[in-house]
Amino acid sequence: SARGEFHLDQRLLKTLSELNWDRPTDIQSGVIPHILEKKNLIISARTGSGKTAAYMIPTIQELLVSKIGDSEQKVSVLILCPSKELCAQSYKNLTMLTKYLDLSSVNISSQKKHDILKPILLKRPDYIIGTPSQVLGYVKEGLINIKELKFLIIDEADLMSGFGYREDIEKLSNDINAANSQILMLSATLGEDVKALRHIFKVRWFRLELNNSEMLPSTEQLTQLVKKCDEEEKFNILVGMFKLNLIKGKTIIFANTVDKCYRMRIVFDTFHISSVVLNAEMPVASRNHIVHEFNVGRYDLLLASDEDNLIDNAEKDFTKKKLNKDEEFKISRGIDFNQVSNVINMDCPSTVESYVHRVGRAARVNQKGQAVLFVSIKDNDKFTAIDNMLMKDNNGVSVFKPFKCSRNIYEGFVYRITEALSKCTRASIRQARLLDIHKEIENSHALQAYFQENPTEMKVLQHNKPVIKERNQHMKNVPSYLIPPILQEKLKKNSKKRRRTRFKEGTKPSINKKKSSNPLFSFKKKAKK
């Protein structure tokens, strides 16, 4: 098999087989041999191409071989990630790959307290995962010894400087024997930030740019659509398509601000469209739980913002308390969302890189997906810049196709949507936002305490509860007169299929039995025995 070329341990091969990782991706085929040859690598590959497994599989293999001759336990692999979410994600992937192996690991960015982590670190686990600042803190305390590292891995390297970690990495480099360690840096892009990190370590680097000629998957794998419209029409289209079930599969809608996310949430709640907001103001435990629940299919619609600015001072004064935003959190970068079918850009992103990372949530690895970009008049210049950049990877042809949506789809909802939008005042958005954050803080405490002891009951928590107090019930179901004629026949067929499925085992609606036994329906009276 393709995996046999790497001469991997049989226990590791068994795990890969159980995960249905039958064949390595292009990046894994390109990277693993170089890691096994003990080269220091700067790896650039587009998002969703399998970078994490590309470095974990060979480091696990090398560790299994080296531990045979080691006389004492020591920290062998240090994985640095720019955010708590990415640390948790890397730790999850590592535990999956090592479940049949006698290798220890710890994620120091988890919510475990210092007193709990201390005895774990004193045992010198094989793998340590954390953000640079957290690792540096434990190194200074003497709880982590990185002088004998075999591997240093810097994941999402282009984010490290932006999050202020360059100085921390420089300090960590003083304790790392670069001559005896293998250093790997991974990134979706190779910019000045990555070049600056490279100069910290005085080693010979090898650069691998895989799939870098294409910023995004091919047009066969990822369909990119664009719709030029005003702000209200965006809501008209989305509400109409969700209410008529024209958008299938898991969907992430990106907005440029958190306020815009809650504006969408209020409108969706009005029409009984279930959604959940994910942003940097939420506690990390809640964010991780939301991502997990989205991945397992409990939520199908995620509203996200990757804005850099926190709420303004007026909103801070409203609570008499500062709402802290996690500066490490970026929804569009690195986090794995499973089987996302659609990415919708409610607002046009400000840069090409931001667009690429947003859209990269769909069509990951070998899956297909589609991305929709709404462009208002004021965003024409931004869209032109994005289009021109992507055209370079598509032989000078635009990757965007027009998003065709007939006004008949949403025309019946326009009046109700206008009414819902009129209620989205600044005060109501602020109130919904604070209500959601306070609710998530309560959820976070529950997650940290009770659900650590009862992990199977985590599904009790809900993150998609309405953020408005009253919802009109007449908005819940779509009357037949609002459904375009072209869709009515299709919906009738679907409803018949659902009814057949419901009674397919020979059962019949109980109403027939009631009618036959009720003299008011049958005009028959049972004779007394």
TrEMBL record:
Residues 491-529 are annotated as: Disordered. Residues 493-502 have a biased composition (Basic residues). It catalyses: ATP + H2O = ADP + phosphate + H(+). InterPro entries: DEAD/DEAH_box_helicase_dom, DEAD_box_RNA_helicase, Helicase_ATP-bd, Helicase_C-like, P-loop_NTPase, RNA_helicase_DEAD_Q_motif. Keywords: ATP-binding, Helicase, Hydrolase, Nucleotide-binding, RNA-binding. Residues 32-208 form the Helicase ATP-binding domain. One of its GO terms (molecular function) is ATP binding. PANTHER family: ATP-DEPENDENT RNA HELICASE RHLE-RELATED (PTHR47959), DEAD-BOX HELICASE 56 (PTHR47959:SF21). This is RNA helicase. It comes from Dugesia japonica (Planarian).
